[in-house]
Amino acid sequence: MGLIRTIWPSPFEVDKTAYFETLENALFMKILVATEKPFAKAAVDGIRKIVEDAGYEFALLEKYTDKADLLAAVKDVDGLIIRSDKVTAEVVDAAEKLKIVVRAGAGYDNVDLAACTAKGIVVMNTPGQNSNAVAELVVCMMIYMSRNQLTPEAGKEVSGKRLGIQAYGNVGRIVARYGKGLGMKVAAYDPFVAPAVFEADGVEMVDSLDKLYETSDFLSLHIPATDQTRKSIGYDLLTKMPKGAVLVNTARKEVIDEEGLIKAMEERPDLKYITDIAADSQALMNEKFGKRVFATSKKMGAQTAEANINAGLAAANQIVDFFKTGNRKFQVNK
Questions:
Q1: Coil, helix or strand for 119?
Q2: Per the CATH hierarchy, to which homologous superfamily does domain 2-129+305-325 belong?
Q3: Is residue 149 a contact partner of residue 294, using CB atoms and an 8 Å limit?
Q4: Which of 47, 104, 264, 280 has the maximum number of C-beta atoms within 10 A of its C-beta?
């Protein structure tokens, strides 16, 4: 009963019928993990323990291939944990009891925020939990492209090259640290980050995107997909890059103007593009540009056991804390 006392007053202080109805509802709170791309088993086991230790029911939907399965599963749940799964207006409408959605990861453009807000559903992300995994992938991608996708022909070293970082958040800062560890000269652009942060990290603060692109042998993208950023990376910026430059995208495919990218690569046979999110025109680019482009077969940024566990457990803890205390620290729909 200790858990219940943290949420509700004594039954003698409120109407008894209403109190026990609320108590009954709480005891049957249901939390669903819905992941078409499953968490690691250790993460699922950890989430289950957190949910059940809090006194809530745990439900799991994995590797579903039909949206109807998700619509049926969310019908009676109070909390929902997802990865890259899409929570559309249709899903929101189907979830009659839903109170909170937590996206296990930083990006949340796969959730219809407006639909959730309209129904009073809180949406959260788990910032920072996948950051190291994504940053390590950036390093892997830079080396992979500088070594010509590990084919026998001579490649280049990344040491001594200039690394530009667009958006200096959790991932960007780790990328900067790893870049410096590899002997790279690191600069970043982010108008929302205080100069003192760059100074503390020993990273050059660039005052314009044009300058960042003009001076980066490798350019790592970490911007979200918003109305301001969609298709913002295209021909004009890419053709400013130095000879032999590589654009590394572990952010979102939507931030790339694909027509502009293709045009730039047609005019600049020295440019390269590697992405963790295959472009809509990826097959065309593979055919046109060969080893100058590469896309992972499926988004791999957070595909480590550690990131799985960190993000999954964080999501579960945030849901439990929300129901216990009302904590909305990581809410993204205000």
A1: coil
A2: NAD(P)-binding Rossmann-like Domain (3.40.50.720)
A3: yes
A4: 104
